[in-house]
Amino acid sequence: MTTPHLERVRAALDSVINSRTGQGLLAANMIDQLTVDGATGESSFTFRLGRDDPATLVRQARQAVIAAGLPQPKITVTDPAGPAKTTHDAPQSAQAGVPAPTPMEVPGIGKVIAVSSGKGGVGKSTVTVNLAVALADSGYRVGIIDADFYGPDMPRMFGLFEKPLTRNGRILPLEAHGVKLMSIGFMIDRDAPAIWRGPIITKILKQFLHDVEWGELDFLLCDMPPGTGDAQLSLVQQVLVSGAVIVTTPQEVSVGDALRGAKMFERVNVPVLGVIENMSGFIDPATGMRHDLFGTGGGARLADELGVPLLGQIPLQAGLVDAADRGEPIVVAAPTSAAAVILREIAGLVRQRVVTSGISLPILE
Ligand SMILES: Nc1ncnc2c1ncn2[C@@H]1O[C@H](COP(=O)(O)OP(=O)(O)O)[C@@H](O)[C@H]1O
Ligand SMILES: [Mg+2]
C-alpha cells in the first residue's frame, strides 16, 4: 500500500535532477531499496552514485527529503559499477588487473581503523597518534601501522628511532606511550625519496600485518598516505578494515580530494566512521575566546556531503608542534589542553562508532 509518507519521499527524490542525465533521481534509477516507515516517515535507501555523477546529489537528496518535512533519511552510497578497477585515477595495482584478494581478519590484531585525508599536512599523523594513545589510556591494546610511505612521521612523533628487532623471523614492534608501532620509517632513510610502486607497497603492508609480533590488539590504527592510492587499496584488500576516519581542515572550500578518498572506502564496503576537523580555529588561552584563523566549515561540509558525523573539531594548539618533535603526543604532553580534551572525546566516539557498526569489541567502562 502506498503511504503518503512514501509518496512524499518519492516526490522529494524525483525533484532532485541529475544534471548529467536531466532526470530526477528515481527516474534516473539512482535510488534502490527505498523503505519508508508509514508511521514516522523515517526513510532509508541506497544511492547509486556513478563515478561521473555529481557527488552533491547525495546531499541534495537528503536536503530534499528534510525539506519535505520528513526525518533525515539513512543513505548508503554505492557505486553501480562496483569497486574502482580501471578508472583513470585507480591505483597502479588495480590497473594491472591484479585480482583483488578477499579481505580477512588477521587473528589477534583487532579492529583495523584507517586514518586518511585528501591531502597532506592536515594533521592526519597527529590525530592517529593521539587517538591511539587516548585509546591505550582507556585500557585498550593498541597498535599503529605507519603506512604513509611518502612521509612516515610516526617514529619522530613517538621519539622512536631504533631499528626493530626480529625474533624467530618475526618483527618486534617498538612501543611508546602504551602503543605498539611499526613504521615504514624504521626501514628507510628518512630523507630518501620514497618512490614506491604498488606491488612493493602491497608487500610491505602484508608484512606489517602478518609478520609483526603484535600480540593481542583491540585496535590497529593505520596512518595512510594522503589521497587514494595503492596503500589504501592494498590495505582494504588485505585485511578487514572496520572503518575509516577522514581528517580535514576548516578551510577546505572544495572537499573534493577528501570526498574522493572517503568514497573509495565506501565503494569497498569500509564504513566511514566520521570526519575530524583539525586546526579548527585557535582558542586564546588567556581569554578562552575562539578565533577562526583559517575559515570555518570544511569538516561540517565534508561530513554533510558524506552523511557521516563530524566527530570533533580540534583547535590549533600552542606547543603541539614542539611536543610532537620531542616524541610526546599532546594528550600526554598537555592532557588538559583544549586539543587533548577533544582528541580524547573523539577517541571515545570512534570506539563507539566501531561498536555500533555491528563489530563486537570488549567495552571497557
Ligand atoms: N591541532 C594542531 N595544532 C597545532 N599544530 C598542529 C595541529 N595538528 C597538526 N599540527 C602540526 O601540523 C603539522 C602537520 O601535521 P601532521 O600530523 O604531520 O599532518 P599529516 O600527517 O596530515 O601530513 C605538524 O607539524 C603537526 O605537529
Ligand atoms: Mg603524516
Task: Provide an overview of this structure.
By secondary structure, this protein is α/β, with parallel strands linked by helices. It folds into 2 domains: 4-78, GMP Synthetase, Chain A, domain 3 (2-Layer Sandwich); 111-356, Rossmann fold, CATH 3.40.50.300. Helices cover 32% and strands 22% of the residues. Strands 6, 7, 10, 11, 12, 13, 14, 15 and 16 form a 9-stranded mixed β-sheet that branches. A 3-stranded mixed β-sheet has the order 3-4-5. The chain has a two-stranded antiparallel ribbon with strand order 1-2. Helix 1 runs antiparallel to helix 2, helix 4 (124-137) packs across helix 12 (338-356) and helix 6 crosses helix 7. The chain is globular, with a radius of gyration of 21 Å. The chain starts with a helix and ends in a 9-residue tail after the last helix. The model is unreliable at 83-98 and 358-365 (pLDDT under 50). Magnesium ion (MG) binds next to helix 4.
The proportion of residues in beta strands is 15-25%
Low-confidence stretches: 83-98, 358-365
Number of helices: 12
As for the CATH topology of the largest domain, it is: Rossmann fold
Q: What CATH architecture of the largest domain do you see? A: 3-Layer(aba) Sandwich
Q: Number of domains in the coordinates? A: 2
Q: Which geometry do the CA atoms define?
A: globular
Distance between the termini: 46 Å
